[in-house]
Amino acid sequence: VSQSRYFLYKSNRRDNIRMYFLGGFHFGTETNAENFNGRRSALNQFVIRKSDFALEYGFGLELFQQYFKLTPEVVFSHGLPNLVQPGFSASTPLGSIQRLNTRGISLHLIFE
Q: What is the pTM of this model?
């Protein structure tokens, strides 16, 4: 499950193009069932949090055509919380990881 909320700042339309900037927040949570509950090894004991909160910003263009509007946009996402669960054992092969954040770049193509 994921939710995004954006604030848009749009320029005035010139001919058939309008540019805009966006910024906002994104909340996501993992809803998959845990697989292989009975199997444990050193590698699958590395547990991360099931939810994430990210700051997102980007830009886009609205390209107006006769019968539709094409809107390409680029969105950058930076996760804020540390996703590594506290109390993780340092004796495992992945034990040296102390901080884990999400980062992402998305290209959205919207047809209206």
A: 0.77
